[in-house]
Amino acid sequence: MGVARSYIITLTSVPPRFGQLDSTLRSLLAQSVPPERVILYLNRRYRRFPDWDGTPPEVPEGVEIRWVGEDWGPATKLLPALRDFAGQDIDILYCDDDQAYRPWLAERMLKARARRPGDAIAVSGMWDFAPPGGGRRRFDKRPRRLFLWKITNVGFHLRALLRRVSCRLTGRDYVEPDRRRVLRAGYADGAEGWMGVLVRPEFFPDEVFDIPDFAWPVDDVWLSGQMARKGHGVWIIGGLREPYLAPVEKPAHSDEEALFRSEFGGKKRRQLNNEAARYFQDRYGIWS
């Protein structure tokens, strides 16, 4: 099966991370199926960083910087692209700035796109959202993705043990080895952007741009919910026959600027995720 080549890659970043972008951007430029464009969307002003002096980051040749007047928070990785490429026959692979991506990521996602033209294609899915009112787990006839649990992944633990022994003998720092996270491909309630998500502009309603304050920090739920209300599912690729798709995590993933470590309005990330999920359940009847 052939691989469509009409796609772009988009992401955003924040000033404290501008100096760490190079490895991420070069990994995106090095995809085995080259993108038409790699676009870094940056805000002219940042809500979280009001003292930024406006100096842009240095980027490798082939990366385009586009300036955005409105601060959509982490959803800036995608929302301006939906306007820039509205009505065009193109796929958008959006991702985060704190990972280095495998060179075959886009190729594997585009192959899945050819089989599932109406779905968002992702590598990491969110946990199923609890039904409103504490009801019983809902039934879904569609195939659901199955986790390959870390605690029961014998092969991973053997590799980790051998690596620890080697590091102790050589004095090198221990880095956790690659591991598979998906046992079987299937649907999930939401897509996590940090491993990459492939979408199309027409998957989203106009309301996607009107982010309420409680959903501003939780772009994964907000974007997934807007797709779901238009009937587009989230298909998680992976499994035992796939190459490793998880990116290489950079130190920035867990630094003090990471959103999952921050509180907004006195609420942590999990609380805000749940609040955003409840918004879609109550307002649109999805994930119920």
What is the C-level CATH assignment of the largest domain?
Alpha Beta
CATH topology (level 3) name of the largest domain: Spore Coat Polysaccharide Biosynthesis Protein SpsA, Chain A
Taking pLDDT < 50 over at least 5 consecutive residues as the criterion, the unreliable ranges are: none
Number of helices: 6
Q: What is the number of strand segments?
A: 12
The CATH superfamily label of the largest domain reads Spore Coat Polysaccharide Biosynthesis Protein SpsA, Chain A
Write structural notes for this entry.
This protein is of the alpha/beta class and 288 residues long. The chain folds into 2 domains: 7-137 and 185-284, Spore Coat Polysaccharide Biosynthesis Protein SpsA, Chain A, CATH 3.90.550; 146-183, no CATH class. Helix content is 24%, strand content 15%. The chain is built from 6 helices and 12 strands. It has helices at 22-29, 79-84, 105-115, 154-170, 219-229, 269-284, and strands at 7-12, 38-43, 63-68, 91-94, 99-100, 120-122, 146-147, 182-184, 186-188, 197-199, 234-236, 248-249. Strands 3-2-1-4-10-6-11-9 form an 8-stranded mixed beta sheet. Strands 5-12 form a two-stranded antiparallel ribbon. Helix 5 runs parallel beside helix 6 (269-284).
